[in-house]
Amino acid sequence: AQKVTQAQTEISVVEKEDVTLDCVYETRDTTYYLFWYKQPPSGELVFLIRRNSFDEQNEISGRYSWNFQKSTSSFNFTITASQVVDSAVYFCALSEAGDSWGKLQFGAGTQVVVTP
Amino acid sequence: GAVVSQHPSRVICKSGTSVKIECRSLDFQATTMFWYRQFPKQSLMLMATSNEGSKATYEQGVEKDKFLINHASLTLSTLTVTSAHPEDSSFYICSAAVPGAKNIQYFGAGTRLSVL
Question: B57 CB near a chain A CB, below 8 Å?
Answer without folding.
Answer: yes
